[in-house]
Specification:
Blueprint (H helix, E strand, L loop, with lengths): L1 H21 L29 E6 L5 H8 L5 E7 L3 H13 L6 E3 L6 H6 L5 E4 L3 H13 L3 E4 L7 H14 L3 E3 L7 H11 L6 E9 L13 H8 L7 H10 L8 E8 L5 H9 L12 E7 L4 E7 L11 E4 L2 E4 L5 E4 L6 H4 L13 H10 L3 H13 L5 H14 L8 H8 L1 H10 L5 E2 L22
Parallel strand pairs: 1-2, 1-4, 2-3, 4-5, 5-6, 7-10
Antiparallel strand pairs: 7-11, 8-9, 8-14, 9-10, 11-12, 12-13
Helix pairs in contact: 5-6, 6-15, 7-12, 9-15, 13-14
The protein binds nicotinamide-adenine-dinucleotide.
Nicotinamide-adenine-dinucleotide binds next to helix 5.
Amino acid sequence: MKRIFYFLAVALLLIACDNKEQQTKMIETEVPERPAGQTDVLQLTAPPMDTVRVGFIGLGMRGPDAVERFAQIEGTDIKGLCDVEADRVEKCQEILEKLGRPRATGYSGSTEAYKEMCEHDDIDLIYIATDWIHHAPLAIYAMEHGKHVAIEVPAAISLEEIWQLINTSERTRKHCMMLENCVYDFFEIATLNMAQQGLFGEVLHVEGSYLHNLDDFWPEYWNNWRLDFNMKNRGDIYPTHGIGPDCQVLNIHRGDRMEYLVAMDTKSCNGPKVVKKQTGKDCADFKNGDQTSTLIRTVNGKTMLIQHDVLTPRPYSRMYQVVGSDGYASKYPVNQLLFRSGQLDESETADYQNLNAHSALPAELCQAMLQKYLPSFVQELEETARRIGGHGGMDFIMDYRLIYCLQNGLPLDMDVYDMAEWCCLGPLTRISLENGSAPVAIPDFTRGAWNKVKGFSYAFAKK
Ligand SMILES: NC(=O)c1ccc[n+]([C@@H]2O[C@H](COP(=O)([O-])OP(=O)(O)OC[C@H]3O[C@@H](n4cnc5c(N)ncnc54)[C@H](O)[C@@H]3O)[C@@H](O)[C@H]2O)c1
């Protein structure tokens, strides 16, 4: 009898646990209804333009390099240069002169000076490289004034901003692209091509990160904006370098959709010390953990692991990794590829014995494959990209593709929904963390159209 009672008690406990598990609530955020008369901007195109007339806003550490790259791309006309600080505008005028380009109209003196530039009708594209809190308001103003926008990462820092950018792009039919350069790095582009050709089998799991100690950079940011943002915000506030290449390889909103995430962070250890060093003040409530990890599951049953750490000493890493049913790629700390036997053409592996499913390919075969699988447009651009540079050439490829697509009236490689999906990790990881790592639903930013486009691809003009 005692025994029966014991088993009954355990069974009831298990049922209770099971029910409790089922009660774990997914936190959902509001998806605003699409305003009447507005349609999605998937595959958005604009009339082709021979010359793309560009205005730059934000000329601190990052902006001038973009000005320099654009000045070396044919079919661009740099019309405007804007920064709060006049001397930064002047430095960029000197870059233009050095490269044989005419001086542009300069705008400076206040955080509102950009408005005059956006109101001019001799500009097609506004390129924004300010601190994060200015990105979305400036981009919205520019689109409202008939300009396409390209915005540095992360383009938006809240769900409100994300939805505003989507609604403005949908209503004005202007391109709104986030300048996520890491999707153009050679390793990422080559492995994306391998994935699309089925070399990894079915891609099941991906990883990405931004692990970059910023000790040398904190003193350089304008008005200390970056440390200030880290101090006030918990969560993965700089997720786009890690998640961008992952989303392209998983065809997010092109056949799959991120369904929910959970996040976990460490306590904040080094943040307060950096604040003390930078400002001389004590900081008892530094919000951002030294390390934040996020797990995401997609509707098609894939997983993603994204990490953020800008405070501990460790080697730079974007930890890009692709785990497939029949192959594997990893970029940090060293490039690695691995394929099940039979995945590769015999001609590719003829000189190599003992390829197996638990050791990476020999380094020289790995390198040869990475080169071979670079799409032809990248092979054609490679020499110029490496010479002009920008993180080894990927920044140039990004700018080149943006201009090429605008000139040819093609859809851009990244649309406003990519921006939304990659940026939403900031606010959504914060919600998860503030609720004991609870699962948080990732909105369908396309509002029902995530399965309309089949697979990620680059657009090219018909020859
Ligand atoms: N994609 C990458 O690899 C990469 C690398 C570095 C920086 N970034 C991004 O680039 C952006 C700029 O970073 P940074 O390192 O150059 O910062 P920074 O502090 O050096 O420069 C920001 C500049 O923006 C200007 N500014 C701010 N508000 C303005 C406004 N309303 N109007 C005109 N100018 C304004 C400031 O005067 C300053 O010159 C950030 O979004 C950052 O995340 C991206």
